Amino acid sequence: TATSLPSLVSLRCWAVDARYARQLLPSPTDGGSLAVDWFNGTDSPAAASPRAPVVLVLPGLAGSSDEGHCKHACAAAAERGWRAAVLNARGVGGGRAGSSPAPGAP
């Protein structure tokens, strides 16, 4: 199947060295938090222009910033000078599931 070889060669087959800086964002409704993992220092003003776009990657229900497609998407964004981060669901990617909802919270 030599005809499929060019499409395979164009794929990003290299490993991505992903180092993340975790930022916890508190939830105003239930006291829990969401984990945002900033890719390879792109949370730093020195890494990208303050006017640079922010790419927020959503890994899926059971995925995390450790997923290959998240690393590749972040690397592609960073190559363009954009800031890149992955929003991890509660309890995924080494994060805690969060606290119980506050009394009276919906």
Folded structure, characterized:
This protein is α+β, with helices and mostly antiparallel strands. The chain has two helices and four strands, in the order H-E-E-E-H-E. The chain has a four-stranded mixed beta sheet with strand order 1-2-4-3, covered by helices on one side. It is globular and about 35 Å long.
Radius of gyration: 17 Å
Tell me the major beta sheet.
4 strands, mixed
Structural class: alpha+beta
Tally of DSSP helical segments: 2
What topology does this entry show?
Elements: H1 5-9, E1 20-26, E2 33-39, E3 54-57, H2 68-79, E4 83-88
Short key terms for the protein model shown above:
disordered N terminus; 106 residues; globular; disordered C terminus; four-stranded mixed β-sheet; alpha+beta
